[in-house]
Write a structure and sequence with these properties.
Elements (H helix, E strand, L loop, with lengths): L6 H7 L4 H14 L12 H4 L9 H17 L1 H10 L7 H18 L10 H27 L1 H4 L3 H31 L4 H7 L9 H5 L9 H6 L2 H14 L14 H9 L2 H31 L3 H9 L2 H15 L1 H25 L5 H41 L4 H28 L10 H15 L5 H4 L8 H8 L1
Helix pairs in contact: 1-9, 2-9, 2-15, 4-7, 4-20, 5-7, 5-20, 6-7, 7-20, 9-16, 9-19, 15-19, 15-20, 15-21, 16-19, 17-18, 17-19, 18-19, 18-21, 19-20
């Protein structure tokens, strides 16, 4: 893979996933919720497909959980597929195309119910489409994320690319959680909103033009005519030519079993993923139920979310300074505390909604959103930075490239976490038209973040000190004395 050294090109590359991620936000946060009326109080006819339940709630909660678990499990074979794909155009670009086309087809079909009511057929139809969508979304984005460590030469470039991706996330989150509610408040049905944002998916064409790969296809004619000695000599020369920065020989792509074993034997990575999974239960629950929460609290969601996401680029800079000074572990705990405080302010809105006007409630919610903004961008940044960094450490020490498998395992564990959050937990909190418990959602979110906060003290030094700038020798001597 040809390296990208230009910061301008890396900046552009970091925005490649914006459109596809935007569609995934719409699918997970809006379209899945739009199949059930429970939890909504205002603009129900626009928030839902047909202003009625289209799926059986109990069965649908299970289908969402299954789809999310599949979304995680499928990462592992798909990572092996994209790592070992042999085509004349290389591995990564064809894998992106193979994932992108059926993903978009499933997205469009998800907008079409088969029956006009709460039926088992509708439930199964949407459940199957959700599984298909997540499978090919995973292939597309897993391949894209796997290139992060392949196109960068050093850790600073990887961190830069991850931060740009985080800014991209902020943009699509701002569009998703600020602009979409505005469309809905104007009477535009959520299905039409989903179609309006479809063209943004074309951002994924950027890697197809920027990635420069050699053919991975084996020429059978040459393979048959080559002698055993020639093959051995070429392989030996190739191994000598390809070494890591530490002089370790670069190994050929691992088979599926060996790649899985490599990821699951890395205790540093696994403990990080367990902590991140707990954090993601809170984060995904908030993102999946935010429209129901604001509909119940009766605040202006567009204003709250716009003011929440607007300062995120600045808060990411602050987060990066904290990482540089104190290390990733300290900065990560800081963001968990800030997000939890933001959620508790959101819960206060539910408690006082009968005593304040809509604009007064909105002002309180804005405070909660601003507190949460100190964490949102960082949450997504660490999801790209940590696996990429650990994959680079593995490559430099052993010569083994496992970047896509690390993201695959991350997808597996986070998929299970997201399934628990947006399946059983969210459907329970949504309740029914008669009784809803959605107002308690911020408490559950804050509890998950605080559990992750406690777990973070068990990080290894590799993660806790990650990104921390080296102290000048004079300062080190003064501390020793």
């Amino acid at each position: 893979m040809q390296k990208i050294t230009s910061r301008k090109k890396l900046f552009l590359y970091g925005f490649s996933g914006l459109g596809v991620n935007m569609l995934n936000l719409i699918m997970g946060s809006y379209l899945c919720s739009a199949l059930l009326v429970g939890g909504f109080e205002e603009h129900v006819e626009s928030w839902t497909y047909l202003n009625k339940n289209l799926v059986i709630a109990a069965v649908w909660s299970v289908m969402i959980l299954v789809a999310k678990i599949l979304d995680g499990v499928i990462d592992i074979p798909l990572s092996s597929f994209t790592d070992r794909l042999k085509t004349r155009w290389g591995r990564r670009r064809p894998a992106i195309v193979i994932g992108f086309v059926p993903m978009m087809l499933a997205y469009v079909l998800f907008l079409i119910p088969l029956e006009n009511g709460e039926t088992l057929l509708n439930t199964i139809w949407f459940g199957v489409l959700l599984c298909v969508y997540y499978t090919f979304y995973t292939l597309t984005m897993l391949t894209y994320y796997a290139t992060f460590s392949e196109i960068t030469e050093k850790e600073s470039d990887t961190v830069f690319l991850s931060n740009i991706k985080s800014i991209s996330d902020v943009i699509y989150f701002s569009l998703g959680y600020a602009l979409i509610p505005l469309f809905v408040s104007l009477g535009v049905n959520i299905r039409y909103v989903a179609l309006i944002f479809m063209p943004l998916s074309l951002f994924m064409l950027i890697p197809l033009f920027m990635l420069k790969e050699k053919s991975t296809k084996v020429d059978k004619t040459q393979e048959q005519t080559a002698t055993t000695d020639e093959v051995d000599t070429n392989a030996a020369n190739e191994q000598k030519a390809d070494t890591t920065a530490n002089g370790v020989e670069v190994q050929p792509p691992l088979k599926l079993g060996a790649s899985i074993a490599c990821a699951f034997k890395n205790k540093t990575f696994l403990y990080w993923m367990l902590t991140a999974a707990v954090m993601n239960i809170g984060l995904q629950l908030f993102l999946g139920g935010i429209n129901e929460l604001f509909s119940t609290v009766e605040v202006n969601q567009t204003i709250v979310m716009a003011t929440s996401f607007a300062p995120v680029p600045l808060t990411i800079l602050l987060y990066n300074k904290m990482v540089k000074k104190f290390g990733l572990g300290w900065a990560f705990r800081y963001t968990l505390v800030m997000f939890s405080l933001g959620m508790m302010v959101m819960f206060v809105c539910s408690l006082v909604k009968g005593n304040l006007s809509e604009w007064e409630l909105t002002a309180v919610a804005v405070v909660g959103g601003l507190l949460a903004s100190f964490a949102i961008g960082a949450f997504f940044s660490v999801s790209y930075t940590v696996p990429s960094h650990l994959a680079q450490v593995e490559f430099e020490s052993k010569g083994v490239s496992v970047s896509s498998m690390y993201f695959a395992v991350e997808g597996l564990i986070e998929g299970i976490a997201a399934g628990i959050a947006t399946g059983p937990i969210l459907v329970f909190l949504k309740g029914s038209e008669e009784a809803s418990y959605i107002c308690y959602m911020p408490i559950v979110v804050a509890a998950a973040c605080m559990l992750a906060f406690a777990m973070s003290f068990g990080f290894s030094k590799t993660i806790s000190q990650m990104g921390k700038a080296a102290k000048p020798k004079l300062e080190e001597k003064q501390e020793e004395q």
